[in-house]
Structure formats: structure tokens, C-alpha cells
Specification:
heterodimer, A: mainly alpha, globular, B: mainly alpha, about 0% strand, rod-shaped
Chain lengths: ~200, ~220
């Protein structure tokens, strides 16, 4: 794996930027290093954001394809991860929008044909906090509560909590101010407190 | 692991910082790292002056978030493990990227098939011709009137320039077989046949004249 800190003087605290600049200069191994390093992060972020959606792997690939195609335009103005997460955020948002349209179409088709709706897949059932709580599956309940958050609240929370990005960086990813991100996290917190109240009570005991 | 080893944080980001905090917490004799503990830890690390900036930022963000979420909720959310990426994820991503790039290069290498030579000119000619015919049809009636006018003009010329009085002109409308014979003798009808040749007619005329004459030609064609 290429080590940008040994090869480049640029942004030593930001290996992604180093790899990207090296790749732009013609070092293909740097791109491989970048994919190796960031693909688990992208996967984890997509999983937090989309749940166990079967399109995650395609989205990981699409993310790096976009990185590659933006090679000549890339400028290390912000952290590489901020730039990368912005791509992920956009792709995930579009994927969700497409899924919502498909779901609406499916429901419309079902109601038009007068058929009874098919039972939801297990994963979708788990996305409902109450049912997951009944199953006493703590992790599933927390995941379900996060999945039930509105898109922007979910992304803000996931980036803050699981990627440990400061609010201003999340703002750069989501194209909003750090203050607005904080407000989103606050609203996410209120929603989570409501949906996880049972588990929180157990936590305090 | 020490805080100085920044790369280990970057290479293994799956909750490593949290585990490090837990270990620090255990060493400090606290089971859970609540916000005050985190704050104290951050302060100590900064005093130590070995804390890399990126780790310091993350600790600070973690602390701020812990305050925002509240320790209980933060701890509950933290209990959810990070999903491990499937084996071979990066290799498959690289393979896909390479195949797309190879396809791009392949497509770039093949020049776009150009339009056949003269296609544009032919299309333009077709459109112009189509439009011209449409206009000719609209002007058909006008053409007929003009044809009659020209015929009358030729008739007047054949009379030696004597302009007929209105009453004579009116009388001239009803051509007798003898009149027609006279006109044929004067080759006027043959002249008229000649001027219906579009190439002959259109040569040297401005567009509007071409349009009128073309209309006359078409009318003559139709009337045959």
C-alpha cells in the first residue's frame, strides 16, 4: 500500500488527500490504497444510513468511480473524507429517493389490482422500533430508531456519532452551517429519546 | 497503541478511538466515559502535548456530541457495533472502477461515426423543396390568375402594342377558335411551354419571383 506521508509533503494528517494528489500525478497505486483504506468506511456509513440495503456494494463502487472521475477536478480544500462523505451522502440520498418511488409504485400497483399487500421482508419489519423492542433486540432497536429518523437528521447523527466528525465538517458534507447541523442532531436526539425510551429506562437501572 | 501513532487511527477507524477511551477509562477506574471524564482526558492529553490535532478534534467532537446527546443516549447508540465490510469489498470496487475506465477508454478510442457526406445539404434541399411545394400549392390560385395575366400581356403584344379599350379587353376574354389558332401561329403557346421549365425560370430570379414562377410551372403541370 502506498504511504502518502512518505511520498508527499502535502496534508500529512489527511492521507486521503495525499493519495488523491499522488493519483492525480499518475500514481495508480495511490488510488488502490485509497480504495483499500476508505471502502470499509464508506460501507459502514452506507450501512448506518441505508440499513442492510442490497444496493450498498454498488454504491461503494459508484462512490469510488466518482472519485476517480473527479480526479482532475479535485482540490484539497477540505479534508478528503469530507469530500468523500459528500459523494456518499448524495448517492445515498438519491438511492433512498429512488427506493421510495419504487415502494410507492409498488403500493399503487397493489392497491389498483386490489391485491392484499404482501408481508414486509424481515429487514423492513425490523426497521419499526416498536416491533424490534418486542423482540428485545437491543441493537436492532437502536438501528431501527436511527433508520426511522428523517434523512438529514439521520445523516447528521451518523456522521457525528459514528464517524466522529465535528459539526462544521458535517456541515461541509451536507452543505449547511455547523449550527444547523447541531440543530439537526438535537432534533434527532429528541426523536431517538422518544422511540428508545424503553431501552433508556433499562439503561438507567 | 499510543496517541502519537496517528496512522493506526486512520487505518483502523472502526471504533478504535472509543476503545482507546474505554481503556483510558478502565485505567482511570471508571466504567463509562461520561462527558466530564472525556473532558478531563482531553485536557490531560493536550497538556501532554503528544495529542495529534486530528485526534484532538475527534475527542472534542465526541465530547460535544456526548453533551448534546446526553450520556445515556450516547452510550446506548455507542452499543451498536460498526458493520464490518464484506470480504473483498475493496477489490470488487477496484475491479468495477477499472472495468468502467477501460470501457471509457475503449469508447473514446472509437471515433464517432460522422454523417454521410452531403447529408446536411440533402436534408436542407429536401426541407426547402418540401416547403416550396407547400407554398406553391397555396399560391396555385394566384398562379392561375397570373398565367391568365401573362397570356393577356402576350396577346396585347401580339396586337402591336395597341392597348385595347376596356370594352375590347372584355370582349377578348372569350377567345374564339380563330383567336387560339392565331396565338398558336405566333408560337406564344410554345413560349409558354418553355417558361414552365423550372430551371429556366428560376435562373437569375430572386426568391419571391422564383416562388411565383415555380407556382406557375406547377400549375401548368397539374393542368396538363
Amino acid at each position: 500500500m502506498a504511504n502518502p506521508e512518505l511520498e508527499l509533503d502535502t496534508a500529512p494528517a489527511d492521507p486521503g488527500a495525499g493519495w488523491m494528489l499522488a493519483f492525480r500525478a499518475g500514481d495508480e497505486a495511490s488510488f488502490e490504497a485509497l480504495v483499500e483504506h476508505y471502502s470499509p468506511k464508506v460501507w459502514a456509513l452506507l450501512t448506518r444510513f441505508l440499513g442492510s440495503d442490497s444496493a450498498r456494494e454498488d454504491l461503494v463502487q459508484e462512490t469510488f468511480l466518482r472519485v476517480l472521475r473527479a480526479k482532475d477536478r479535485y482540490e484539497p480544500r477540505a479534508k478528503f473524507s469530507t469530500w468523500l462523505y459528500r459523494i456518499v451522502f448524495n448517492l445515498a440520498s438519491h438511492a433512498q429517493a429512488r427506493a421510495a418511488i419504487r415502494k410507492t409504485d409498488r403500493l399503487d400497483a397493489t392497491s389498483e389490482s386490489g391485491e392484499r399487500a404482501a408481508p414486509e421482508p424481515v429487514e423492513e419489519r425490523l426497521l419499526e422500533p416498536d416491533r424490534a423492542l418486542e423482540a428485545e433486540d437491543r441493537i436492532a432497536a437502536v438501528r431501527a430508531a436511527i433508520a426511522a429518523l428523517p434523512e438529514r437528521q439521520r445523516m447528521a447523527l451518523v456522521l457525528a456519532k459514528y464517524e466522529e466528525l465535528p459539526y462544521n465538517e458535517i456541515g461541509a458534507v451536507m452543505e449547511m452551517s455547523g449550527k444547523a447541523v447541531k440543530s439537526l442532531v438535537h432534533r434527532a436526539r429528541e426523536a431517538l429519546r422518544a422511540s428508545l425510551s424503553g431501552l433508556l429506562a433499562e439503561e438507567l437501572q | 497503541m499510543t496517541l502519537e501513532n496517528r496512522d493506526e487511527f486512520d487505518v483502523d477507524p472502526d471504533g478504535e478511538l472509543l476503545r482507546w477511551l474505554d481503556r483510558q477509562g478502565e485505567a482511570a477506574g471508571v466504567s463509562k466515559m461520561d462527558a466530564p471524564e472525556l473532558e478531563r482526558l482531553l485536557e490531560l492529553a493536550r497538556e501532554d502535548d503528544t495529542l495529534p490535532l486530528s485526534v484532538g478534534e475527534r475527542l472534542q467532537a465526541r465530547l460535544e456530541l456526548a453533551r448534546d446527546l446526553g450520556t445515556d443516549l450516547d452510550s446506548l447508540l455507542g452499543s451498536v457495533p460498526r458493520d464490518a465490510a464484506p470480504a473483498g469489498l475493496a477489490q470488487r470496487a477496484l475491479r468495477r472502477v477499472r472495468s468502467e475506465v477501460a470501457l471509457d477508454a475503449l469508447l473514446d478510442a472509437v471515433p464517432l461515426e460522422g454523417a454521410p457526406v452531403g447529408l446536411g445539404a440533402r436534408v436542407l434541399a429536401y426541407v426547402v423543396e418540401h416547403e416550396r411545394r407547400a407554398r406553391f400549392r397555396r399560391l396555385g390560385a394566384l398562379g392561375m390568375a397570373l398565367a391568365a395575366g401573362i397570356l393577356l400581356l402576350f396577346t396585347l403584344r401580339s396586337t402591336g402594342g395597341n392597348v385595347a379599350e376596356p370594352s375590347e379587353a372584355m370582349a377578348g376574354r372569350d377567345l374564339t377558335p380563330a383567336d387560339l389558332e392565331l396565338l398558336q401561329d405566333l408560337d406564344l403557346l410554345e413560349d409558354w411551354e418553355d417558361v414552365t421549365d423550372p430551371e429556366l425560370l428560376l435562373d437569375g430570379l430572386d426568391p419571391f419571383e422564383s416562388l411565383l414562377v415555380g407556382g406557375l410551372g406547377e400549375t401548368a403541370e397539374e393542368s396538363r
